Amino acid sequence: MAQNDDNLLKKITSHAKEYGFIFPSSEIYDGLAAAYDYGQNGVELKNNIKEYWWKAMVQMNENIVGIDAAIFMHPTTWKASGHVDAFNDPLIDNKDSKKRYRADVLIEEVVAKYEAKIAKEVEKAKKRFGDAFDEAQFLATNPNVLRSQTKIDEIEQRLGASMEKGDLADIKALIEELEIACPVSGSKNWTDVRQFNLMFSTELGSVAEGANKIYLRPETAQGIFVNYLNVQKTGRMKIPFGIAQIGKAFRNEIIARQFIFRMREFEQMEMQFFVKPGEEMTWYENWKAKRIAWHKALGLGEENYRFHDHINLAHYANAATDVQFNFPMGFKELEGIHSRTDFDLKAHEEHSGKKLQFFDPEENKSYVPYVIETSIGLDRMFLAIMSASYTEETLEDGSERTVLKIPAALAPYKVAVLPLVKKDGLPEKAREILSDLRFDFNCQYDEKDAIGKRYRRQDAIGTPFCVTVDYDTLEDNTVTIRDRDDLSQIRVSIDELKSKLKESCALEELLRKL
Ligand SMILES: Nc1ncnc2c1ncn2[C@@H]1O[C@H](COP(=O)(O)OP(=O)(O)OP(=O)(O)O)[C@@H](O)[C@H]1O
């Protein structure tokens, strides 16, 4: 996959719409900015991603359980968590174009340009030195690379420190020093930087009853924190233990764009792992390793992942990293792993006046646990899979195909059953096979058009296997299995069809790799 490939993102967006994965929300009214609906194939892929995550977290770990908390929470929750006072993004307007930007994103784009420069130098050197090329050595010694890297470090340190302190004047100063111009007007005529709170608010109850301002949760984590003792007591959980949750979150992002990468309504898969104070760093490293293994087991290409450790930490964290993925726009955050200390639980103790301590029978004392959080955006995971899977190929016979090489276990449909022709008892035989397979797999049946065209339709939605029923099937009870990726075809007896398909597309195979 090429970096910074706007064209690829456009292709994925239109493919996703054309093949029923993602539609713009309320499209008949010209859509709503940055809101999307998942279509008939999209919802299947999304559910499969959820299942992979849920099973890897909850089913495969005896000390992790799940919950499903309400989106609306008592408003004091968000005071305690710091979101009311500090869940802000710095925004800036260009006075000439009247366009609004996130000030930190404008600065990060300069960093991305230096990163692209480094990548270009590496590419050039690779071509020049061939097999003798030592990338690590090159990165550590090449003067152009070192200059760019120093610049990146300087900018990131300064931005991180100003964001941490909320020093808006310095963020503006940095924009001026870097001579950042508005991409629309080309001018450097900027307003001051202002804070903008990202939480959506609404009112609970009718105004007549005395309305109460409440928020749509901006993260699912707080629903876990306020329930941690309920779960611990009723589930007889002992530290260390975790609580997992999948659910919607809402953020009034200043600029929501890049398809489903940044939306105002999105879904998170979060897990909070409660540990003994002092043991958090061991667990932090442990979860980093586990989460990257979960990603890599999908086979989307190990080179597409990297960790980005935070130098400047949020007020609640004592260590944090992002799992970045090589999206069409370059490497960007896909998941965050944070050591959140006891910040949240202590804050909820203070604001609620309730004790949130765990009694540790081994130590014979009570304490507020420390927390390691893993937090991944479901929609971003969806986009990661779509970007790594989207492939345009020219086949041996010169024809073109667009194929989604989605990991088989996550594909919306695992198998399509296709009678070679629509007569002579083949459709009946195909339906008989289908009626048995559908207990184990999400299947499609298609008898319309020539077989080649039907294969293409399945390629476009990422179905890993097509089972073709032909005249021989009626004679010897065998069918052909066609592989989406290498186009190989094997003949198998109908009796072994299920087990053959299971070998390649059962979620179990993925989970066993972890
Ligand atoms: N607006 C959004 N749209 C889609 N997914 C999101 C959005 N904001 C956050 N996420 C997802 O939720 C995960 C955890 O949220 P977290 O608060 O750590 O994100 P973040 O650091 O604010 O993300 P970013 O820096 O990209 O805004 C992110 O890794 C991302 O996958």
Automatic annotation (TrEMBL):
Primary location class: cytoplasm
Residue numbers binding ATP: 251-253, 261-266, 333-334, 377-380
Enzyme class: ligase
InterPro entries on file: aa-tRNA-synt_IIb, aa-tRNA-synth_II, aa-tRNA-synth_II/BPL/LPL, Anticodon-bd, Anticodon-bd_dom_sf, Gly-tRNA_synthase/POLG2, Gly_tRNA_ligase_bac, GlyRS-like_core
Residue intervals of the Aminoacyl-transfer RNA synthetases class-II family profile domain: 178-419
An annotated Gene Ontology molecular function: ligase activity
Signal peptide, first to last residue: none
Binding residues for substrate: R102, E219, F266, E267, Q268, M269, E270, E373, T374, S375, I376, G377
Keywords (A to Z) from UniProt: Aminoacyl-tRNA synthetase, ATP-binding, Cytoplasm, Ligase, Nucleotide-binding, Protein biosynthesis
EC number: 6.1.1.14
Catalytic activity: tRNA(Gly) + glycine + ATP = glycyl-tRNA(Gly) + AMP + diphosphate
Annotated localization: Cytoplasm
Quaternary state and interactors: Homodimer.
Role summary: Catalyzes the attachment of glycine to tRNA(Gly).
The family this protein is said to belong to: Belongs to the class-II aminoacyl-tRNA synthetase family.
Name by which UniProt lists this protein: Glycine--tRNA ligase
